[in-house]
Specification:
Blueprint (H helix, E strand, L loop, with lengths): L2 E6 L7 H13 L8 E6 L4 H6 L21 H12 L6 E4 L6 H14 L13 E5 L5 H11 L13 E2 L2 E2 L5 E4 L15 E6 L9 H21 L5
Parallel strand pairs: 1-2, 1-3, 3-8, 4-7
Antiparallel strand pairs: 4-8, 5-6
Helix pairs in contact: 1-6, 5-6
Length: 233
Amino acid sequence: FMSTVSFTGSFPDFEASSTISSPLFVDSDATSYEKNFTLVVCPCISPWGYERIQRWTAIGSDPNRHFIDNSPVEECAQVMAFVKSLGVQFNMHFDCHETTDSDESEYQPAKAARDGEAHVEGVIPDGFYLVAGTEEPEPEWFKAMIDAVKKITHIAPAEADGKMLDVLVKQEGIIEIPARSLGLCGGFLKLKYAITTEVYPDSPKVDDANCDQAQVVTITSGLQYIIDKQIKF
């Protein structure tokens, strides 16, 4: 069987491993999966932000909240138009992200100031985790990826209240949010098998290479699960 898989990265654009991971996968592992999957890679959705290490676009918008119909953000609109132009049915989507300390020290305070709101300091999870859509969760698929990543890096623990980023952690290393209604990239294809990765490169427990490899292992283990379980789309 042949399934079509999309990979997206580099938005917000201070996230180095999100841009590096898809090309790294293509260079190191893609040939092992080309018999089973057609791979569509968009490694750097917001190049302006990537060049400037900036989460926002040139017009001060957060791309990862604007994957919606008639998107006012050019980068999002172009990616969605490109995907539509291919005329294929996608079956899986890997959306690669990372969160750095600058998200809390720089972006969130600036966003609050822009919107005339008080900044409430948040907590960045220390470790790797996955963000899934609440619409059609696939817990066994999630577990397969978390188990594989455990061999590469540490998984972010839940806080004392059992939550991560104010979301209840139902299984290790997984939070579920309404990705589609929030306009997130991980939700715009409306797929059952869609996942967003998060690594924390500022953790003292990791380095850049470790973060990059965790992203790649998420992809390979996610694809391998589909092959091993002989899942048909």
